[in-house]
């Protein structure tokens, strides 16, 4: 036990003196959080739209106003005919064109079901799909309104039985990507920092030769293992708290669920990342190798495939299946669950269980390999 | 019953196709200063790393201070010290912190007196708060030795301890080593400098993973038969080539600015050498007979070894 304390003391003394380390564990999380929180906003607002209005009635102007007032669209220009649309879209000035046919207003009241045409630039899929969703929402609300109005005008008549799907978004009602991103950032940071610090601190000792020196001492492998992982559990947890505080203070996003549960499951997740860090250290000789291996073979695939960047439901089936093998996937689900929905272990127990299984398996396999390498 | 410091029996270790250590037998006594010498790749460092438990042997029996290397490692580690070829301390820790760390992980409780003693003796005291990375080569090596000695080992392994150390520091370092030897510590070292090897009690010459000869330096030098002539002439390369073909010359060793000839019989051999060089327009600037050095013997042994293997 004492030996572990001596190792920790040494580890923190070195850590304190390494300015780049301080930058990595304090500044990097802050910058990531701020960039991803502010800049990488995936919300779609003010989509530039061209309107071709052949109708010129009060109703059609009403509809256009609804588009503008929603805040999702801004009118770039009004065009005389649909042939002009091409040039707007080709140049990329407009992302959407709305074409309102002649007699739109009259047809609407004559129950002729007029057709609106919406042309969307599909090159930016994200904007296109969200833009389309918003448009159909605006249009369906509009037609709903008209029906209600008509009921008011002639109270005796029966409305046609028509079901209009209404999309309601729970937990993140504004669909603000920031709310979705921040729990993700917690998970990602925790992973990046602990995998990197663990593997680098071990490989650094290999590089400078002190590792060999440690082997020729009475230090036992498990003590070295503890000395090389405990500091990073502490630093990782400190970073989680830091990021949570900033998320709350800067973006006003509180943790809805239990903070204790969140921290506890974070420690479980750390078993995975420390295990991976140990594993990387056993296959790398230099710090560069360790860094490259960690980034390209471990972290990037995890980040891309576990639902941080791309929604898992949108992935091809093969990659969806792979994502089940990534502990980060379960941790993201847990984080978002606790963070945004405020749900507890009753709803998250299967994710928590899988996370624990992965953590224990990865950590113990890596620890065995690490032990064997020491001799 | 006293055990030898080291007993190696039929040790082998290979890295892929390379036999780094090839059926090695060696016995090193307690209280002895033993030098392993040999060309690069001879297996010196590998042998030391195996003895320290850093890499496992492939086969053979090894005991260190009477304990079996594989089964009784925990008894060995606290009794040995290891100074590796490269400087391997924490550059971002001070002299004090480095020695404190190594004392603590060796479970030495009362290291303070020992530390002060070592620092005073090695004249490191004025620099105690300096980071190890900021020390000169010689001071680094002394600090590394201090860290190796803090837990009072019975046996220390030094892998090329004076490579890259300036001559003055090297002399200091050897002074420290001879004092350590007097205090009863067994020292096993490797060195590329044969003048250093001559100061050891016994020397082992390794080549291709095997031990070619183990003996006291003076006995090794006696192995040399014939006379060594040191020759300085104007075209050393040409002279080397010519002399290699001369019958009476047993061996030619080139040392950059001079040639050493080994002649079976000086009186009949040397005049022949003189006349041949003269006929090829090479002027001899000076010549003298010298006592054979370890270097002469080793080069000679290794050349014979090469002939044997082919």
In which range does the helix fraction of chain B lie? Answer: 25-40%
**Chain-averaged pLDDT of chain A:** 83
What is the number of domains of chain B? Answer: 2
Care to count the β-strands of chain B?
A: 14
Give the CA-CA distance, first to last residue of chain A. 21 Å
Shape of chain B: globular
Q: What fraction of the residues of chain A are assigned to beta strands by DSSP? A: 5-15%
Order of strands across the main sheet of chain A: 2-1-3-4
Walk me through the structure.
The complex is a heterodimer of chains A (375) and B (310). Chain A is an alpha/beta fold. Chain A has two domains: 238 residues, no CATH class; 107 residues, 3-Layer(aba) Sandwich (abc type-2 transporter like fold). Chain A is built from 14 helices and four strands. Chain A is elongated. Chain B is an alpha/beta fold and 310 residues long. Chain B folds into two domains: 215 residues, Rossmann fold, CATH 3.40.50.300; 67 residues, Alpha-Beta Plaits, CATH 3.30.70. In chain B, 37% of the residues lie in helices and 27% in strands. Chain B has eleven helices and 14 strands. A six-stranded mixed beta sheet of chain B has the order 6-7-8-3-9-10, sandwiched between helices. In chain B, strands 2-1-4-5 form a four-stranded antiparallel beta sheet. The model of chain B has no long low-confidence stretch (mean pLDDT 88). At the A-B interface, α1 and α8 of A face β6 and α3 of B.
Q: Topology, please?
A:
The complex is a heterodimer of chains A (375) and B (310).
Chain A: H1 2-17, H2 19-39, E1 47-53, H3 58-69, E2 73-79, H4 85-91, E3 96-100, H5 104-109, E4 117-120, H6 125-153, H7 177-208, H8 210-215, H9 221-251, H10 259-283, H11 287-305, H12 317-323, H13 327-341, H14 345-374
Parallel strand pairs in A: 1-2, 1-3
Antiparallel strand pairs in A: 3-4
Helix pairs in contact in A: 1-9, 2-7, 2-9, 7-9, 7-10, 7-11, 7-13, 9-10, 10-11, 10-13, 10-14, 13-14
Chain B: E1 6-15, E2 18-28, E3 33-37, H1 44-52, E4 59-64, E5 67-68, H2 73-77, E6 80-83, H3 95-105, H4 111-121, H5 137-149, E7 155-159, H6 167-182, E8 186-190, H7 194-197, E9 202-207, E10 210-215, H8 217-222, E11 227-233, H9 236-244, E12 249-254, E13 259-263, H10 266-279, E14 284-290, H11 294-309
Parallel strand pairs in B: 3-8, 3-9, 6-7, 7-8
Antiparallel strand pairs in B: 1-2, 1-4, 4-5, 9-10, 11-13, 11-14, 12-13
Helix pairs in contact in B: 3-5
